[in-house]
Amino acid sequence: MHKIEAIIRPHKLEDLRVELEEIGVTGMTVSEVRGFGRQKGHSELYRGREYNVVFQPKIKVEIMMNGELMEKVIDTICSTVNTGQVGDGKIFIYPISEVVRIRTGERGAEAL
């Protein structure tokens, strides 16, 4: 089992959700996050004063799955959210040793 964590641009979330559902992803967790990388933020004007905005708003999508769909999910994320510009995001993949469904007590792949 693996956890795929993708940090993406907020306006790409709905497109990604639709594409992932089409390839068989049955669930995901989404969080609003803020951060910076090579994009380094930007300047904004507010009431005549310039402000530096360092932390950019992003979306973190977390998906738990068995290995057979993993490469297809990664490819789908890359092709759906890619704009070709700095700040498109990152994908992190973690091994998961155990999953437990709280309601039923199921473990492993059955809990997903």
Characterise the protein shown here.
By secondary structure, this protein is of the alpha+beta class. The protein has one domain: Alpha-Beta Plaits (2-Layer Sandwich). Helices cover 20% and strands 36% of the residues. The chain has two helices and six strands. It has a four-stranded antiparallel β-sheet, covered by helices on one side. It has a two-stranded antiparallel sheet with strand order 3-4. β3 and β4 form a beta hairpin. α1 packs antiparallel against α2. It is elongated, with a radius of gyration of 17 Å. The termini are close together. The model has no long low-confidence stretch (mean pLDDT 90).
What is the strand tally? 6
The CATH C-level class name: Alpha Beta
Shape: elongated
Which spans of ≥5 residues are poorly predicted at pLDDT below 50?
none
Helix content: 10-25%
Order of helices and strands: EHEEEEHE
- What percentage of amino acids are in beta strands? 35-45%
In the CATH classification, which architecture applies? 2-Layer Sandwich
Average predicted confidence as pLDDT: 90
